Amino acid sequence: MSTVTSARRLLARSFSRAASATPGLDARLLVEGAVGQENPDPDMQLPADALARLRDFATRRLAGEPVWRILGEREFWGLRFRLSPATLEPRPDSETIVEVTLAALAGRREEALSLLDLGTGTGCLLIALLSELPRATGLGIDLSAEARDMAAGNAELNGVGDRAAFRQGSWTEGLAGRFDVIVSNPPYIPSGEIAGLSVEVREHDPLLALDGGADGLGPYRIFARTLPALMAPSGIVVFEIGAGQGPDVVALMQAGGLEFRGSRNDLGGHERALIFALT
What we know:
The protein folds into two domains: 68 residues, Helicase, Ruva Protein, domain 3 (Orthogonal Bundle), CATH 1.10.8.10; 195 residues, Rossmann fold. The chain contains ten helices and nine strands. The relative contact order is 0.11.
């Protein structure tokens, strides 16, 4: 593995034998991460320190650790987000939440909106929205202090730190005021299904961000009881949901006094985002 090309080929073969879904991509990203640059010269000789990093990366990947966890950051909405063991890894499907929210705001995108992100994790939803809403300010809440700190760092990294605040807390406890936009990607996997998840998710995403209780709907029940009192009169709520949860989440929110305004599918064609407003 002395050159970029030979390293990529060897890693891709190893990852393919280990049944990676994207062995070539994994190899390219890890080589780039080891040498510290994108698209390095294919004939570049890898220095000893890069080779050492690459061997460590390869060992971790073959053990099931996701590539982005190994690299310590991932892109979301064209922005960089650093990861920690306390944060869910942002997925492209969650960009659907950002898309739906911006579409729902339509002509309000230049207003001084107030945003709330419940279970903020890396801060990806809130920070992506602030990057598109130049006069908005936002508050992110997470039960994990480590996640809260990571989100604050990501806000600074992406140039919106002066318009974002982050607190440690349990969902809506202790919150007051009225928000124009409330978003959340809460844990929604039923507790009994956690053990059957892939190693990449089960062993590397935090349980706190996965486990939604016995039926996966625990957080939504809290939201149905508490969010109407936190919404501005023309406010909107956008949630991410798991497969097949749409009807149950809609029923919960309607019982709590919210009006269902529609849904949007993710990149795979699955219902992913639900939008609500006050009745």
